[in-house]
Amino acid sequence: MEFPDLGKHCSEKTCKQLDFLPLKCDACKQDFCKAHFTCAAHKCPFAFTKDVQVPVCPLCNNPVPVKKGEIPDVVVGEHIDRDCNCHPGKKEKIFTFRCSKEGCRKKEMMQVSCDQCHGSFCIQHRHPLDHSCKHGGRPIGAAGCTAARASESKPSGALNTLSTSWLARRLRWKVKR
């Protein structure tokens, strides 16, 4: 034994092993070996001071404070009934901005407003010519003029597909006869 003062003996009554790198328990402040340093391994009498768990609300993910002697499930239940900001039955609406064009019932996630009349419109009616804007004339810029000409010259997509499907049915009916 060249270094008798080096290391410490394990504080566990059944172990007493000399350990050169002992670990100190946070609760009882005694030194233990690698096998007995956890509170459960050495049956620490002060483990309750370190075994503190804070329940989390399953709806809003916020910690719910629990006082000593209270049952965590009851406290979380009271939090859900009174203080919780998130209500499971009430869903937030995503599509809230309704189109201002007469006859259009579409809703958008983001507000698309007209620069001239400041109305809220869907993507299809966002241009002044598409919603018959009363506060302005022709769109400004080459891209706007091109879009206006394209929308005036071609029929709308829904009308075009309707007439195409009608024509296809009519041709099939003639072929069958």
UniProtKB/TrEMBL annotation:
One of its GO terms (cellular component) is proteasome complex. It comes from the Eukaryota. One of its GO terms (biological process) is cellular response to arsenic-containing substance. The keyword Metal-binding applies. Keywords: Metal-binding, Repeat, Zinc, Zinc-finger. The keyword Repeat applies. Pfam families: zf-AN1, zf-C2H2_ZFAND2. This is AN1-type zinc finger protein 2A isoform X1. Residues 4-52, 93-141 form the AN1-type domain. InterPro entries: AN1-like_Znf, Znf-C2H2_ZFAND2A/B, Znf_AN1. One of its GO terms (molecular function) is zinc ion binding. It comes from Mustela putorius furo (European domestic ferret).
